[in-house]
Amino acid sequence: MDNLDYGIVGNCRSAALISKTGSVDWCCLPEFDSSSVFAKLLDDKIGGSFEIRVAKEYTIKQRYKKSTAVLITRFSDGENTFEIHDFMPRYYNENGGYHAPPELARHVRHIKGKPKFRVHYNPKLEYALGETKTYVKKNFVVSLTQTEKFDTIFLYTSFNKNAVVEGRELEIKQNGYFLVGYNEKILLPSTRKIYLDLERTKVYWLNWTNRTPTYNKYNKQIMRSAITLKLLSYDRTGAVLAAATTSLPETIGEVRNWDYRFCWIRDASMVIKVMADLGHKNVARRYLQFIIDLIPDKDEKLQIMYGINKEKTLTEKTLDHLSGYKDSKPVRVGNAAYEQKQNDIYGILMDVIHAQLAKFSTGIENGEELWGITKGIVWIVSRHWKEPDKGIWELRTEDRHFTFSKVLCWVAIDRAVRVARILKKNRKLEQWTQLEQEIKNDIHENAWSDEVNAFTQSYGSTHLDASVLLMESYGFIHAKSPKFVSTVRAIEKELSNDGLLYRYKNKDDFGLPSSSFTICTFWFINSLFKIGEEEKAVALFEKTLTYGNHLGLFSEDIDFKTKRLLGNFPQAYSHLAMIECAVNFSRKNTEERILESMRE
Protein backbone atom coordinates (compact mmCIF):
# COMPACT_ATOMS: atom_id res chain seq x y z
CA MET A 1 0.00 0.00 0.00
CA ASP A 2 1.37 3.40 -0.99
CA ASN A 3 -0.79 5.40 1.35
CA LEU A 4 -2.12 4.90 4.87
CA ASP A 5 -5.29 3.40 3.43
CA TYR A 6 -6.53 1.97 6.69
CA GLY A 7 -9.69 2.08 8.69
CA ILE A 8 -9.60 2.06 12.48
CA VAL A 9 -11.91 0.01 14.68
CA GLY A 10 -11.77 0.00 18.45
CA ASN A 11 -13.63 0.00 21.75
CA CYS A 12 -11.85 2.63 23.90
CA ARG A 13 -9.58 -0.12 25.21
CA SER A 14 -7.60 -1.02 22.12
CA ALA A 15 -7.77 -0.56 18.36
CA ALA A 16 -6.96 -2.30 15.09
CA LEU A 17 -6.02 -0.92 11.69
CA ILE A 18 -7.55 -2.74 8.75
CA SER A 19 -6.34 -2.17 5.19
CA LYS A 20 -8.66 -1.35 2.32
CA THR A 21 -8.30 -5.00 1.22
CA GLY A 22 -9.49 -6.27 4.60
CA SER A 23 -6.12 -7.16 6.18
CA VAL A 24 -5.57 -6.54 9.89
CA ASP A 25 -2.07 -5.05 9.75
CA TRP A 26 -1.86 -3.47 13.22
CA CYS A 27 -3.41 -4.55 16.50
CA CYS A 28 -2.15 -4.48 20.07
CA LEU A 29 -3.91 -6.49 22.78
CA PRO A 30 -5.13 -6.30 25.44
CA GLU A 31 -4.68 -2.50 25.37
CA PHE A 32 -3.61 0.30 23.01
CA ASP A 33 -0.03 0.33 24.30
CA SER A 34 0.40 -3.43 24.70
CA SER A 35 2.83 -5.26 22.44
CA SER A 36 1.51 -6.00 18.96
CA VAL A 37 -0.28 -9.14 17.83
CA PHE A 38 -0.31 -8.00 14.18
CA ALA A 39 2.36 -5.54 13.00
CA LYS A 40 2.64 -5.96 9.23
CA LEU A 41 2.37 -2.16 9.21
CA LEU A 42 5.91 -2.03 10.64
CA ASP A 43 7.39 -5.03 8.85
CA ASP A 44 5.92 -6.59 5.70
CA LYS A 45 7.76 -9.87 6.18
CA ILE A 46 7.70 -10.72 9.89
CA GLY A 47 5.20 -8.31 11.51
CA GLY A 48 2.18 -10.62 11.27
CA SER A 49 -1.29 -10.02 9.80
CA PHE A 50 -4.81 -11.44 9.46
CA GLU A 51 -5.69 -11.24 5.76
CA ILE A 52 -8.74 -12.05 3.69
CA ARG A 53 -7.51 -13.15 0.25
CA VAL A 54 -9.75 -13.38 -2.82
CA ALA A 55 -9.20 -14.05 -6.54
CA LYS A 56 -8.15 -11.07 -8.67
CA GLU A 57 -11.61 -10.95 -10.29
CA TYR A 58 -13.05 -9.57 -7.04
CA THR A 59 -13.37 -5.85 -6.53
CA ILE A 60 -13.02 -4.65 -2.94
CA LYS A 61 -14.76 -1.59 -1.50
CA GLN A 62 -14.65 -0.27 2.04
CA ARG A 63 -16.81 2.08 4.09
CA TYR A 64 -17.95 2.70 7.63
CA LYS A 65 -21.48 1.88 8.68
CA LYS A 66 -22.93 5.38 8.94
CA SER A 67 -22.45 7.07 12.35
CA THR A 68 -20.59 4.07 13.81
CA ALA A 69 -17.09 2.63 14.18
CA VAL A 70 -18.09 -0.57 12.33
CA LEU A 71 -15.93 -1.01 9.21
CA ILE A 72 -17.45 -2.85 6.23
CA THR A 73 -15.25 -4.35 3.50
CA ARG A 74 -17.22 -5.69 0.52
CA PHE A 75 -15.79 -8.32 -1.86
CA SER A 76 -17.60 -8.99 -5.15
CA ASP A 77 -16.87 -10.51 -8.57
CA GLY A 78 -20.38 -9.68 -9.84
CA GLU A 79 -21.93 -13.09 -9.22
CA ASN A 80 -20.54 -13.76 -5.77
CA THR A 81 -20.49 -11.19 -2.97
CA PHE A 82 -19.69 -11.14 0.73
CA GLU A 83 -18.80 -8.58 3.38
CA ILE A 84 -16.58 -8.48 6.43
CA HIS A 85 -17.99 -6.31 9.24
CA ASP A 86 -15.05 -5.53 11.53
CA PHE A 87 -15.57 -4.15 15.03
CA MET A 88 -14.36 -4.30 18.59
CA PRO A 89 -17.34 -4.94 20.88
CA ARG A 90 -18.46 -2.00 23.00
CA TYR A 91 -21.91 -1.70 24.54
CA TYR A 92 -23.69 -1.16 27.83
CA ASN A 93 -24.07 -4.15 30.10
CA GLU A 94 -26.66 -4.79 32.82
CA ASN A 95 -24.62 -3.32 35.69
CA GLY A 96 -24.41 0.09 34.00
CA GLY A 97 -20.81 -0.27 32.78
CA TYR A 98 -19.45 -1.07 29.33
CA HIS A 99 -18.71 -4.45 27.83
CA ALA A 100 -15.42 -3.77 26.00
CA PRO A 101 -13.34 -6.97 25.93
CA PRO A 102 -9.85 -7.10 24.36
CA GLU A 103 -10.98 -8.70 21.12
CA LEU A 104 -11.58 -8.05 17.44
CA ALA A 105 -14.69 -9.51 15.82
CA ARG A 106 -15.02 -10.10 12.08
CA HIS A 107 -18.61 -10.87 11.10
CA VAL A 108 -18.70 -12.51 7.66
CA ARG A 109 -21.91 -11.68 5.83
CA HIS A 110 -23.03 -13.77 2.85
CA ILE A 111 -24.65 -11.47 0.27
CA LYS A 112 -25.10 -13.62 -2.86
CA GLY A 113 -23.71 -16.54 -4.87
CA LYS A 114 -20.96 -18.83 -3.59
CA PRO A 115 -18.06 -16.50 -2.80
CA LYS A 116 -14.70 -18.07 -2.03
CA PHE A 117 -11.73 -16.74 -0.09
CA ARG A 118 -8.62 -17.81 1.79
CA VAL A 119 -7.38 -16.63 5.16
CA HIS A 120 -3.78 -15.76 5.92
CA TYR A 121 -3.80 -15.88 9.72
CA ASN A 122 -0.35 -15.11 11.03
CA PRO A 123 -0.23 -13.55 14.51
CA LYS A 124 3.23 -12.54 15.75
CA LEU A 125 3.05 -11.87 19.47
CA GLU A 126 5.28 -9.47 21.42
CA TYR A 127 6.18 -7.26 18.44
CA ALA A 128 7.26 -10.41 16.52
CA LEU A 129 10.19 -10.92 18.88
CA GLY A 130 11.02 -14.60 18.87
CA GLU A 131 8.80 -17.32 17.48
CA THR A 132 4.99 -17.49 17.63
CA LYS A 133 3.59 -21.02 17.28
CA THR A 134 -0.03 -21.69 16.29
CA TYR A 135 -2.01 -24.82 17.28
CA VAL A 136 -5.49 -25.98 16.28
CA LYS A 137 -7.47 -27.16 19.32
CA LYS A 138 -10.98 -28.55 19.59
CA ASN A 139 -12.77 -25.24 20.17
CA PHE A 140 -10.26 -22.63 19.05
CA VAL A 141 -6.90 -21.86 17.50
CA VAL A 142 -4.25 -20.76 19.99
CA SER A 143 -1.03 -18.90 19.17
CA LEU A 144 1.70 -18.57 21.75
CA THR A 145 5.20 -17.31 22.26
CA GLN A 146 7.58 -17.86 25.12
CA THR A 147 10.83 -16.54 23.66
CA GLU A 148 10.81 -13.06 25.22
CA LYS A 149 7.95 -13.68 27.61
CA PHE A 150 4.94 -15.95 27.62
CA ASP A 151 1.91 -14.63 25.73
CA THR A 152 -1.09 -16.13 23.96
CA ILE A 153 -3.89 -15.15 21.59
CA PHE A 154 -7.05 -17.11 20.70
CA LEU A 155 -8.97 -17.38 17.42
CA TYR A 156 -12.56 -18.62 17.33
CA THR A 157 -14.35 -19.17 14.03
CA SER A 158 -17.40 -20.74 12.39
CA PHE A 159 -15.19 -21.92 9.50
CA ASN A 160 -13.05 -25.04 9.42
CA LYS A 161 -10.15 -24.22 11.76
CA ASN A 162 -7.57 -26.36 9.96
CA ALA A 163 -8.54 -24.86 6.59
CA VAL A 164 -8.24 -21.37 8.06
CA VAL A 165 -4.77 -21.95 9.54
CA GLU A 166 -3.51 -23.75 6.44
CA GLY A 167 -4.81 -21.03 4.09
CA ARG A 168 -7.07 -23.43 2.15
CA GLU A 169 -9.96 -22.11 0.07
CA LEU A 170 -13.20 -21.53 1.97
CA GLU A 171 -16.69 -21.17 0.49
CA ILE A 172 -19.26 -18.90 2.12
CA LYS A 173 -22.72 -20.41 2.09
CA GLN A 174 -24.11 -18.53 5.07
CA ASN A 175 -23.02 -15.88 7.57
CA GLY A 176 -20.00 -16.74 9.69
CA TYR A 177 -17.42 -15.12 11.95
CA PHE A 178 -13.87 -14.83 13.23
CA LEU A 179 -13.07 -13.64 16.74
CA VAL A 180 -9.51 -12.82 17.82
CA GLY A 181 -9.39 -12.52 21.61
CA TYR A 182 -6.71 -11.97 24.19
CA ASN A 183 -8.50 -14.29 26.65
CA GLU A 184 -9.88 -17.79 26.27
CA LYS A 185 -13.70 -17.59 26.17
CA ILE A 186 -15.71 -19.25 28.92
CA LEU A 187 -18.87 -19.33 26.79
CA LEU A 188 -18.10 -20.38 23.22
CA PRO A 189 -18.95 -17.76 20.56
CA SER A 190 -21.39 -18.48 17.74
CA THR A 191 -22.36 -16.63 14.57
CA ARG A 192 -25.57 -15.55 16.28
CA LYS A 193 -23.71 -14.24 19.33
CA ILE A 194 -21.20 -12.31 17.18
CA TYR A 195 -24.10 -10.81 15.20
CA LEU A 196 -25.75 -9.78 18.47
CA ASP A 197 -22.49 -8.16 19.61
CA LEU A 198 -22.32 -6.36 16.26
CA GLU A 199 -25.86 -4.99 16.62
CA ARG A 200 -25.26 -3.92 20.23
CA THR A 201 -22.02 -2.19 19.23
CA LYS A 202 -23.84 -0.40 16.41
CA VAL A 203 -26.48 0.81 18.86
CA TYR A 204 -23.76 2.06 21.23
CA TRP A 205 -22.20 4.16 18.45
CA LEU A 206 -25.55 5.40 17.11
CA ASN A 207 -26.48 6.57 20.61
CA TRP A 208 -23.08 8.22 21.02
CA THR A 209 -23.18 10.03 17.68
CA ASN A 210 -26.78 11.09 18.33
CA ARG A 211 -25.42 13.31 21.13
CA THR A 212 -23.21 15.11 18.61
CA PRO A 213 -24.92 18.16 17.09
CA THR A 214 -25.59 18.13 13.36
CA TYR A 215 -24.09 20.90 11.24
CA ASN A 216 -25.33 22.28 7.96
CA LYS A 217 -21.85 22.00 6.40
CA TYR A 218 -19.23 19.24 6.59
CA ASN A 219 -21.39 17.19 8.95
CA LYS A 220 -20.07 13.88 7.59
CA GLN A 221 -16.44 14.93 8.18
CA ILE A 222 -17.17 16.31 11.67
CA MET A 223 -18.92 13.08 12.65
CA ARG A 224 -16.17 10.77 11.34
CA SER A 225 -13.52 12.85 13.07
CA ALA A 226 -15.48 12.88 16.35
CA ILE A 227 -15.82 9.07 16.25
CA THR A 228 -12.08 8.80 15.54
CA LEU A 229 -11.27 11.00 18.56
CA LYS A 230 -13.56 8.85 20.71
CA LEU A 231 -11.74 5.73 19.44
CA LEU A 232 -8.48 7.27 20.70
CA SER A 233 -9.84 7.74 24.22
CA TYR A 234 -9.01 5.14 26.87
CA ASP A 235 -12.07 4.49 28.97
CA ARG A 236 -10.41 3.00 32.03
CA THR A 237 -8.52 6.14 33.07
CA GLY A 238 -9.81 8.96 30.86
CA ALA A 239 -6.51 9.28 28.96
CA VAL A 240 -6.58 10.35 25.31
CA LEU A 241 -3.97 8.97 22.90
CA ALA A 242 -2.13 11.10 20.35
CA ALA A 243 -2.48 8.26 17.81
CA ALA A 244 -3.01 4.50 17.65
CA THR A 245 0.43 3.63 16.25
CA THR A 246 4.14 3.83 16.82
CA SER A 247 7.00 4.70 14.46
CA LEU A 248 5.11 5.65 11.31
CA PRO A 249 7.71 8.07 9.87
CA GLU A 250 7.20 11.77 9.23
CA THR A 251 9.33 11.24 6.12
CA ILE A 252 9.91 7.86 4.38
CA GLY A 253 13.39 6.53 5.09
CA GLU A 254 14.17 9.05 7.82
CA VAL A 255 14.40 8.66 11.60
CA ARG A 256 11.59 10.94 12.84
CA ASN A 257 9.69 7.92 14.12
CA TRP A 258 8.01 8.12 17.51
CA ASP A 259 5.61 6.10 19.66
CA TYR A 260 2.35 8.06 19.97
CA ARG A 261 0.31 5.58 22.02
CA PHE A 262 0.50 7.86 25.06
CA CYS A 263 -1.43 10.74 26.56
CA TRP A 264 0.17 14.11 25.80
CA ILE A 265 -1.37 16.75 28.07
CA ARG A 266 -1.37 19.19 25.14
CA ASP A 267 -3.00 16.97 22.51
CA ALA A 268 -5.45 15.42 24.96
CA SER A 269 -6.57 18.74 26.42
CA MET A 270 -7.20 20.16 22.95
CA VAL A 271 -9.19 17.04 22.04
CA ILE A 272 -11.24 17.25 25.23
CA LYS A 273 -12.13 20.88 24.62
CA VAL A 274 -13.41 20.07 21.13
CA MET A 275 -15.29 16.97 22.35
CA ALA A 276 -16.94 18.95 25.16
CA ASP A 277 -17.97 21.60 22.60
CA LEU A 278 -19.59 18.76 20.62
CA GLY A 279 -21.61 17.82 23.72
CA HIS A 280 -19.58 14.84 24.96
CA LYS A 281 -19.05 15.95 28.55
CA ASN A 282 -18.37 12.43 29.91
CA VAL A 283 -15.10 12.28 27.96
CA ALA A 284 -14.14 15.63 29.50
CA ARG A 285 -15.17 14.53 32.99
CA ARG A 286 -13.07 11.37 32.80
CA TYR A 287 -10.06 13.26 31.46
CA LEU A 288 -10.21 15.83 34.27
CA GLN A 289 -10.26 12.95 36.75
CA PHE A 290 -7.19 11.51 34.98
CA ILE A 291 -5.41 14.85 35.57
CA ILE A 292 -6.54 15.07 39.21
CA ASP A 293 -5.22 11.55 39.83
CA LEU A 294 -1.85 12.53 38.33
CA ILE A 295 -1.23 15.52 40.58
CA PRO A 296 -1.18 14.27 44.17
CA ASP A 297 1.36 16.84 45.42
CA LYS A 298 0.65 20.54 45.17
CA ASP A 299 4.15 21.39 44.02
CA GLU A 300 4.49 18.50 41.55
CA LYS A 301 5.25 19.74 38.06
CA LEU A 302 3.25 18.21 35.25
CA GLN A 303 5.02 15.99 32.76
CA ILE A 304 4.20 16.75 29.14
CA MET A 305 2.88 13.19 28.71
CA TYR A 306 1.93 10.06 30.61
CA GLY A 307 1.14 6.42 29.91
CA ILE A 308 -2.55 5.68 29.40
CA ASN A 309 -2.63 3.94 32.79
CA LYS A 310 -0.98 7.01 34.42
CA GLU A 311 2.58 5.68 34.08
CA LYS A 312 5.14 8.42 34.61
CA THR A 313 8.19 6.64 33.20
CA LEU A 314 8.00 5.92 29.46
CA THR A 315 11.46 4.54 28.72
CA GLU A 316 12.22 4.62 25.00
CA LYS A 317 13.82 1.64 23.26
CA THR A 318 14.21 0.49 19.68
CA LEU A 319 13.01 -2.78 18.13
CA ASP A 320 15.89 -3.41 15.74
CA HIS A 321 14.48 -6.68 14.37
CA LEU A 322 11.61 -4.81 12.66
CA SER A 323 12.39 -3.14 9.32
CA GLY A 324 9.95 -0.27 9.93
CA TYR A 325 7.17 1.20 7.77
CA LYS A 326 8.52 1.24 4.18
CA ASP A 327 11.94 0.38 5.66
CA SER A 328 12.00 3.51 7.83
CA LYS A 329 13.98 2.56 10.90
CA PRO A 330 14.11 2.71 13.84
CA VAL A 331 10.92 1.28 15.31
CA ARG A 332 10.55 2.82 18.76
CA VAL A 333 8.43 1.86 21.75
CA GLY A 334 8.21 4.22 24.69
CA ASN A 335 8.99 7.92 24.30
CA ALA A 336 11.91 9.77 25.86
CA ALA A 337 10.11 13.10 25.39
CA TYR A 338 8.33 12.48 28.72
CA GLU A 339 11.39 14.00 30.42
CA GLN A 340 11.20 17.25 28.47
CA LYS A 341 10.18 20.59 29.93
CA GLN A 342 7.45 22.34 27.95
CA ASN A 343 5.88 25.36 29.59
CA ASP A 344 2.83 25.53 27.31
CA ILE A 345 1.05 22.54 28.86
CA TYR A 346 -0.08 24.56 31.90
CA GLY A 347 -2.00 27.02 29.76
CA ILE A 348 -3.54 24.31 27.65
CA LEU A 349 -4.71 22.44 30.75
CA MET A 350 -6.02 25.62 32.42
CA ASP A 351 -7.98 26.36 29.23
CA VAL A 352 -9.78 23.02 29.57
CA ILE A 353 -10.42 23.46 33.31
CA HIS A 354 -11.87 26.93 32.70
CA ALA A 355 -14.04 25.71 29.80
CA GLN A 356 -15.53 22.94 31.94
CA LEU A 357 -16.13 25.20 34.96
CA ALA A 358 -17.68 27.89 32.73
CA LYS A 359 -20.05 25.32 31.23
CA PHE A 360 -20.91 23.23 34.27
CA SER A 361 -19.94 25.47 37.22
CA THR A 362 -22.95 24.46 39.32
CA GLY A 363 -22.72 20.74 38.68
CA ILE A 364 -18.99 20.21 38.19
CA GLU A 365 -17.48 17.34 40.11
CA ASN A 366 -14.18 17.83 41.89
CA GLY A 367 -14.47 21.63 41.98
CA GLU A 368 -12.25 21.83 45.05
CA GLU A 369 -9.54 19.67 43.45
CA LEU A 370 -9.70 21.75 40.27
CA TRP A 371 -9.31 24.97 42.29
CA GLY A 372 -6.31 23.37 44.01
CA ILE A 373 -4.80 22.48 40.61
CA THR A 374 -5.49 26.03 39.38
CA LYS A 375 -3.58 27.55 42.29
CA GLY A 376 -0.76 25.05 41.79
CA ILE A 377 -0.50 25.88 38.07
CA VAL A 378 -0.32 29.62 38.80
CA TRP A 379 2.39 28.96 41.39
CA ILE A 380 4.46 26.96 38.88
CA VAL A 381 3.91 29.37 35.96
CA SER A 382 4.75 32.43 38.10
CA ARG A 383 8.11 30.85 38.96
CA HIS A 384 9.02 29.37 35.59
CA TRP A 385 7.45 31.40 32.76
CA LYS A 386 10.67 33.36 32.19
CA GLU A 387 12.65 30.15 31.59
CA PRO A 388 13.33 28.67 28.11
CA ASP A 389 11.93 25.23 27.22
CA LYS A 390 11.74 22.62 24.41
CA GLY A 391 8.56 24.09 22.90
CA ILE A 392 5.50 22.51 21.30
CA TRP A 393 7.58 20.66 18.68
CA GLU A 394 9.73 18.91 21.29
CA LEU A 395 13.08 19.90 19.84
CA ARG A 396 15.67 17.67 21.42
CA THR A 397 18.44 20.27 21.16
CA GLU A 398 18.84 23.45 23.22
CA ASP A 399 16.02 25.20 25.09
CA ARG A 400 14.67 28.49 23.72
CA HIS A 401 12.16 31.19 24.66
CA PHE A 402 9.43 29.91 22.33
CA THR A 403 6.62 32.37 21.63
CA PHE A 404 3.95 29.66 21.77
CA SER A 405 5.13 28.59 25.24
CA LYS A 406 5.02 32.19 26.47
CA VAL A 407 1.53 32.77 25.04
CA LEU A 408 0.31 29.64 26.80
CA CYS A 409 1.85 30.81 30.07
CA TRP A 410 -0.29 33.93 29.58
CA VAL A 411 -3.31 31.68 28.87
CA ALA A 412 -2.65 29.81 32.14
CA ILE A 413 -2.91 33.00 34.18
CA ASP A 414 -5.76 34.48 32.13
CA ARG A 415 -7.88 31.33 32.60
CA ALA A 416 -6.92 31.09 36.29
CA VAL A 417 -8.25 34.64 36.75
CA ARG A 418 -11.51 33.61 35.08
CA VAL A 419 -11.76 30.46 37.21
CA ALA A 420 -11.21 32.56 40.35
CA ARG A 421 -14.11 34.80 39.28
CA ILE A 422 -16.39 31.82 38.59
CA LEU A 423 -15.59 30.34 42.02
CA LYS A 424 -15.70 33.80 43.67
CA LYS A 425 -12.13 33.52 44.98
CA ASN A 426 -11.45 37.23 44.65
CA ARG A 427 -8.45 37.57 46.95
CA LYS A 428 -6.14 36.15 44.23
CA LEU A 429 -7.37 38.44 41.45
CA GLU A 430 -5.16 41.49 41.82
CA GLN A 431 -1.91 39.54 42.06
CA TRP A 432 -2.82 37.21 39.19
CA THR A 433 -4.05 40.04 36.93
CA GLN A 434 -0.72 41.85 37.35
CA LEU A 435 1.17 38.68 36.37
CA GLU A 436 -1.07 38.19 33.33
CA GLN A 437 -0.30 41.74 32.13
CA GLU A 438 3.43 41.30 32.77
CA ILE A 439 3.57 38.16 30.58
CA LYS A 440 1.48 39.83 27.85
CA ASN A 441 3.79 42.86 27.72
CA ASP A 442 6.84 40.61 27.61
CA ILE A 443 5.49 38.74 24.57
CA HIS A 444 4.63 41.92 22.66
CA GLU A 445 8.07 43.30 23.42
CA ASN A 446 10.18 40.22 22.63
CA ALA A 447 8.24 37.97 20.22
CA TRP A 448 7.46 40.62 17.59
CA SER A 449 9.96 41.16 14.78
CA ASP A 450 9.82 44.39 12.75
CA GLU A 451 12.16 42.74 10.26
CA VAL A 452 9.63 40.05 9.24
CA ASN A 453 6.57 42.01 10.41
CA ALA A 454 5.29 39.06 12.43
CA PHE A 455 5.39 37.27 15.75
CA THR A 456 8.24 34.79 15.40
CA GLN A 457 9.07 31.29 16.63
CA SER A 458 11.13 32.45 19.60
CA TYR A 459 12.39 35.60 21.23
CA GLY A 460 15.01 37.43 19.17
CA SER A 461 14.50 35.16 16.16
CA THR A 462 13.31 35.93 12.63
CA HIS A 463 12.12 32.34 12.05
CA LEU A 464 8.38 31.84 11.58
CA ASP A 465 6.36 29.08 13.23
CA ALA A 466 2.79 27.90 12.53
CA SER A 467 2.07 27.50 16.26
CA VAL A 468 1.93 31.29 16.76
CA LEU A 469 -1.30 31.25 14.72
CA LEU A 470 -2.98 29.94 17.89
CA MET A 471 -2.43 33.32 19.59
CA GLU A 472 -5.79 34.39 18.22
CA SER A 473 -7.80 31.29 19.07
CA TYR A 474 -6.55 31.43 22.69
CA GLY A 475 -7.68 35.04 22.95
CA PHE A 476 -4.23 36.65 23.23
CA ILE A 477 -4.83 38.89 20.23
CA HIS A 478 -7.85 39.87 18.12
CA ALA A 479 -8.18 38.37 14.65
CA LYS A 480 -8.45 41.80 13.02
CA SER A 481 -5.40 43.18 14.88
CA PRO A 482 -2.88 44.45 12.28
CA LYS A 483 -0.13 42.50 14.06
CA PHE A 484 -2.05 39.22 13.76
CA VAL A 485 -3.10 39.83 10.15
CA SER A 486 0.50 40.55 9.13
CA THR A 487 1.67 37.43 11.03
CA VAL A 488 -0.80 35.29 9.05
CA ARG A 489 0.42 36.85 5.80
CA ALA A 490 4.09 36.34 6.70
CA ILE A 491 3.45 32.70 7.65
CA GLU A 492 1.61 32.12 4.37
CA LYS A 493 4.49 33.60 2.39
CA GLU A 494 7.23 31.75 4.24
CA LEU A 495 5.71 28.41 5.38
CA SER A 496 2.99 27.58 2.83
CA ASN A 497 3.89 25.08 0.11
CA ASP A 498 1.04 24.50 -2.37
CA GLY A 499 -1.44 25.23 0.42
CA LEU A 500 0.22 22.86 2.92
CA LEU A 501 2.20 24.28 5.81
CA TYR A 502 5.61 23.62 7.28
CA ARG A 503 5.65 23.75 11.06
CA TYR A 504 8.77 25.88 10.67
CA LYS A 505 11.60 26.03 8.16
CA ASN A 506 14.66 26.52 10.34
CA LYS A 507 16.68 23.33 10.74
CA ASP A 508 15.93 21.24 13.81
CA ASP A 509 17.63 18.16 15.30
CA PHE A 510 17.13 16.24 12.05
CA GLY A 511 17.42 18.92 9.37
CA LEU A 512 14.65 20.57 7.36
CA PRO A 513 11.23 18.84 7.50
CA SER A 514 10.04 17.62 4.09
CA SER A 515 6.43 16.95 5.02
CA SER A 516 3.59 19.16 6.22
CA PHE A 517 2.29 18.77 9.76
CA THR A 518 -1.43 18.33 9.05
CA ILE A 519 -2.69 20.33 12.04
CA CYS A 520 -0.66 23.39 10.92
CA THR A 521 -2.54 23.54 7.63
CA PHE A 522 -5.87 23.50 9.50
CA TRP A 523 -4.59 26.21 11.90
CA PHE A 524 -3.67 28.33 8.89
CA ILE A 525 -7.06 27.76 7.23
CA ASN A 526 -8.77 28.81 10.45
CA SER A 527 -6.62 31.94 10.68
CA LEU A 528 -7.37 32.91 7.08
CA PHE A 529 -11.07 32.52 7.85
CA LYS A 530 -10.79 34.64 11.01
CA ILE A 531 -8.96 37.53 9.31
CA GLY A 532 -11.73 37.73 6.71
CA GLU A 533 -10.37 35.67 3.80
CA GLU A 534 -13.29 33.30 4.02
CA GLU A 535 -13.61 32.10 0.43
CA LYS A 536 -9.90 31.37 0.24
CA ALA A 537 -10.06 29.50 3.57
CA VAL A 538 -13.00 27.32 2.51
CA ALA A 539 -11.39 26.51 -0.86
CA LEU A 540 -8.14 25.50 0.87
CA PHE A 541 -10.09 23.45 3.45
CA GLU A 542 -11.92 21.51 0.74
CA LYS A 543 -8.66 20.89 -1.09
CA THR A 544 -7.02 19.63 2.14
CA LEU A 545 -9.95 17.28 2.79
CA THR A 546 -9.08 15.48 -0.45
CA TYR A 547 -5.73 14.45 1.08
CA GLY A 548 -7.45 12.29 3.69
CA ASN A 549 -7.61 8.59 2.91
CA HIS A 550 -10.52 6.71 1.32
CA LEU A 551 -12.40 6.83 4.65
CA GLY A 552 -11.66 10.48 5.42
CA LEU A 553 -8.99 9.72 8.03
CA PHE A 554 -5.83 11.77 8.53
CA SER A 555 -2.39 11.00 9.86
CA GLU A 556 0.12 13.39 11.41
CA ASP A 557 1.78 14.59 8.18
CA ILE A 558 1.17 15.02 4.45
CA ASP A 559 4.01 14.76 1.93
CA PHE A 560 4.41 18.07 0.07
CA LYS A 561 5.04 16.47 -3.32
CA THR A 562 2.95 13.29 -3.45
CA LYS A 563 0.28 14.34 -0.88
CA ARG A 564 0.51 10.86 0.66
CA LEU A 565 -0.25 10.52 4.37
CA LEU A 566 2.75 10.13 6.67
CA GLY A 567 3.36 9.91 10.40
CA ASN A 568 1.33 8.20 13.10
CA PHE A 569 -2.26 7.33 12.30
CA PRO A 570 -5.00 8.25 12.82
CA GLN A 571 -3.77 11.43 14.50
CA ALA A 572 -5.97 13.06 17.14
CA TYR A 573 -4.34 16.45 16.54
CA SER A 574 -5.26 16.45 12.84
CA HIS A 575 -8.88 15.47 13.43
CA LEU A 576 -9.52 17.95 16.24
CA ALA A 577 -8.20 20.84 14.09
CA MET A 578 -10.30 19.69 11.17
CA ILE A 579 -13.40 19.72 13.39
CA GLU A 580 -12.57 23.25 14.59
CA CYS A 581 -12.35 24.52 11.00
CA ALA A 582 -15.52 22.76 9.89
CA VAL A 583 -17.50 23.95 12.92
CA ASN A 584 -16.31 27.55 12.45
CA PHE A 585 -17.37 27.51 8.79
CA SER A 586 -20.70 25.96 9.69
CA ARG A 587 -21.37 28.39 12.56
CA LYS A 588 -20.68 31.37 10.33
CA ASN A 589 -23.15 29.95 7.85
CA THR A 590 -25.74 29.47 10.59
CA GLU A 591 -25.24 33.00 11.92
CA GLU A 592 -25.69 34.39 8.41
CA ARG A 593 -28.93 32.44 7.93
CA ILE A 594 -30.28 33.72 11.27
CA LEU A 595 -29.44 37.33 10.29
CA GLU A 596 -31.06 36.80 6.86
CA SER A 597 -34.28 35.52 8.44
CA MET A 598 -34.32 38.44 10.90
CA ARG A 599 -33.96 40.90 8.02
CA GLU A 600 -36.82 39.22 6.17
UniProtKB/TrEMBL annotation:
Q: Which residues form the GH15-like domain?
A: 217-582
Asked if the record carries the keyword Hydrolase, the reply is yes
Domain of life of the organism encoding this protein: Bacteria
Output one GO BP term.
carbohydrate metabolic process
- Occurrences of domain Trehalase-like N-terminal (ranges): 8-136
Q: Which UniProt keywords apply?
A: Hydrolase
The record, for InterPro entries, names:
6-hairpin_glycosidase_sf (IPR008928), 6hp_glycosidase-like_sf (IPR012341), GH15-like (IPR011613), Trehalase-like_N (IPR045582)
Kindly give the Pfam families that the UniProt entry links to this protein: Glyco_hydro_15, TREH_N
* Gene3D superfamilies membership: 1.50.10.10
Write one Gene Ontology MF term: hydrolase activity, hydrolyzing O-glycosyl compounds
Entry-linked PANTHER family: GLUCAN 1,4-ALPHA-GLUCOSIDASE, TREHALASE
**This protein is called what?**
Glycoside hydrolase family 15 protein
Originating species = Ulvibacterium marinum
